[in-house]
Amino acid sequence: MATVPASVSESTEVDTGRLEDASRSRVLLIVLAIVAATEIVPFHYSFISMSVRLIGPDFPSAGSQLAWLNTLYALVGGVAVPIAGKLSDMIGKKRVIFGCLLISLVGSVLDAMTHSWGVLLVGRALQGLAFPVLAISYGLVRDLVPRRMVAVAIAVAGGGTGVGAVLGPIAGGALTDHYSWRSLFWFCAIYSAVTTLLLLVVVPETRLRAKSRIDFVGTALLGAGIALVLIYLSRGSDWGWGGAGSLAWLIGGLALLALFYAWETRTADPIMSPKLLRSSRLATLLVWAFLINICTQGLSYLLGYLAEGPGGAQGDAIKQQVATGAAQQAAQQSGTPVAGLQQFFTVQGDLPGMNLTLYQFTVRVLLVMSVVYVVVAPITGWLSTRFGLRLPAAACAFSFGLGSLLLYFFHDSVWQLALCAVPLGIGAGIFLGTVPNMLIEAVPQEQQGASAGMYGVFSSFGSATATAVVAAVMAAHPLVLRVTVPGHESSAELRTGGLAQLSTETAYSYLFLIFAGVGLVGLSVVLLMRHYRHPTTGGLRS
To answer: CA 300, CA 268: separation in Å to the nearest integer?
Structure first.
């Protein structure tokens, strides 16, 4: 069992309103109420990915700007996390969570009712303010749950996001089958109203307050820097990664982040202590979490594309349709019968998709992964009270590396995806049960919100980087239209319209190897960690 170091005692602990004498049933109810409120975030993610194709026809003026529905959510959420985290240390974590959820609810109602593209974007931005509640909720659990139960409760809260990740596509599929895309936003509004009320009634507020002031200069520098970097990572594939205009966003963002750090070393009330940021305990955690977020988000996108994309007979039919269309166009221009030209036009590249619907993908693959990590997360929390967090962190990185490598060799059928989802689910469960506990062990209670905010920043960067990597590699391996007329040969990459979303088998193979490599790098980072080797204490060591 975990033992408390001699240098640390309960008498020195800050009063946070911890419910040491509460019954297990009350503690469980509090944790479940917090988890239920935070589940809105995976609903936001899954619903918008489902509804973009349905929203587009109602807003023809949006054109190619539909991608901003995802970009804006990540952008606002990434900027809001460190600010909301700092504010939660000052005025109370429950209060900030309630405010974020309330604003997000307003955004959902706006999106459900509007017929204006601009208002839809505003509503989506307001929804993004729900993103900080995930990070802040871990600190609230730390402050309220009895010390002996913190590690397991935190792991349960982390693993609970898997429920929303599974229920989102199932509920969304049922709603869009019978109603319009607006029903998804009404669902989010009603769900938020119910769970926010439950949070208000069941969950007490923490008594912990950090005596600090808002650093407005640091907030502006950090927010602007994060925003510019995320815009580059989110939109670089469309604008061109190396273009001067595109790189200006990245360079400007990095410059502002450097100014932020310089300012934080001089201000009396930094958003987060630079000394804490430089500590190996937190720095290695943030780097490792950044890498694992690349794996989790990147593989999630990739598996979705692979499962729902065209392949087999359907893929061949698409290729034949493209070749026939090109032959018909050439026949009109030359006055030659189509039958005489058809043989000279072919489309090269194998489409590896499995033609599944989103619902089928969820039930056959995602459900396997989610069940595994919902089970593994609390087990990880319990094991950490006996063996520490470094070993689970290594197992997490290894699991993602192994799962990615298996997918490189086996991704030809649904059952192979489901089988490979097991190590990925183990990795995700360990990650969700480990990261919040690492944050608790790494920083003092009065900086829990701020540290969770910095983790949120690195998490956003990891997710955006994964999206950028997937987009870049897939764009580099499109289908190719080949013309082999006697005396003339030419080829053209198919990058326009719906064909721009179709990538060849080579792209998937490269990406699986890339994510296996990222998992290996993550394992190397864990091996360099000098901390987290002892049983968790629920924050007494920090």
So the answer is: 42
- Candidates 302, 300, 298, 296; CA nearest to 434 is 296
pLDDT digits (tens, 9 = 90+) for 253-275: 899 989 988 888 888 777 777 77
Q: How far apart are CA 535 and CA 542, in angstroms?
A: 13
Residue 6 confidence (pLDDT): 37
Amino acid (one-letter) located at 465: T
Q: Write phi, then psi, for 482 (nearest 5 degrees).
A: -115, 130
* Sign, Cα dihedral of 138, 141, 142, 148: negative
Q: Token pair of 475, please?
A: 């764009």
CB burial string 115-127: b at 16+ within 10 A, e below:
eebeebbbbbbbb
Straight-line distance from the first to the last Cα atom of the chain, in angstroms, rounded to the nearest whole number: 19
Residues in contact with 119: Cβ distance below 8 Å, sequence separation at least 6, in sequence order: 110
Helix 448-475 × helix 505-528 angle, to 10°: 150
| Residue 79, C-beta contacts closer than 8 angstroms, at least 6 positions apart | 222, 223, 226, 227, 230
Please spell the DSSP secondary structure of 280-323, one letter per residue.
HHHHHHHHHHHHHHHHHHHHHHHHHHHHHS-BHHHHHHHHHHHH
Task: Quote the Cα angle for 396-79-460, to 5°.
Answer: 20
Helix axes 117-127, 68-91, angle to 10 degrees: 40
Contact status, residue 47 vs residue 188, Cβ threshold 8 Å: yes
What confidence score (pLDDT) does residue 496 get?
Answer: 56
CA–CA gap between residue 134 and residue 45 (Å, rounded) = 13
Spatial distance between the Cα atoms of 33 and 470, rounded to a whole number of angstroms: 35
**Sheet architecture: strand order including 480-485:** 345-348, 480-485, 488-493
At residue 500, the pLDDT reads 56
User: In whole angstroms, what is the distance from residue 252 CA to residue 159 CA?
Assistant: 36
Give every residue of the chain whose pLDDT is below 70, as ranges: 1-15, 49-50, 52-53, 62-64, 67, 160-162, 165, 237, 338, 340, 446, 485, 487, 493-501, 538-542
CB atoms within 10 A of CB 33: 19
Residue 255 CA to residue 225 CA, distance in Å, equals 7
Residues sharing a CB contact under 8 Å with residue 201, sequence separation 6 or more, in sequence order: none
Residues 6+ apart with CB under 8 A from 194: none
Sort residue 123 into left (φ over 0), alpha (ψ -120 to 50) or beta.
Answer: alpha
Asked whether the beta carbons of 58 and 183 are under 8 A apart, the reply is no
Q: What gap in Å lies between CA 17 and CA 146, rounded to an integer?
A: 10
Are 75 and 124 in contact, with CB atoms under 8 Å apart?
no
Pair 394, 527: CB distance under 8 Å: yes
User: CA 221, CA 176: separation in Å to the nearest integer?
Assistant: 41
DSSP 334-357: HT--HHHHGGGEEEES--B-----
